[in-house]
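Hi Y.,

Following your request, here is the sequence exactly as I used it, all 132 residues.
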Amino acid sequence: MQTGSCHCGTVRFEVDGDLQGIFHCHCETCQKLNGTAYGSTGFTAADQFRITAGNDALTGYESSPGKQRYFCSRCGAPIYAHAESNPERIGVRIGALDSDPGIRSKLHIWVSHKHPWFEVNTSLPEFDEYPT
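Below is the corresponding structure, written out as tokens. Let me know if you'd prefer a different format.
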């Protein structure tokens, strides 16, 4: 089991089971909503993810049609995302985990949108968009 939280500790969550491969998304939405060069996410089954504290402080934002991103309304830390088009899985923000998830990064996506000042210096596969 993995546990995680927002920066202020108000929102806490658990993931029962394994996270699937970590990916780094360079799309403009992830850049803006995370305030970073990219967002790092790992997927888990929706029935294996639960908020254990601070549900009242969790705020959702529809970043694109049918995709909700959830963050702590007190400290602003991103926690997870959920898409109507794929209701059986949750995208957990890897930086919110309390410990090493035991898996490693698999790929970079939306590299066509990466900042010009950021260089991807890994041997991981890179995709201009979301791979199909």
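The radius of gyration is 14 Å.

Thanks again,
Q.
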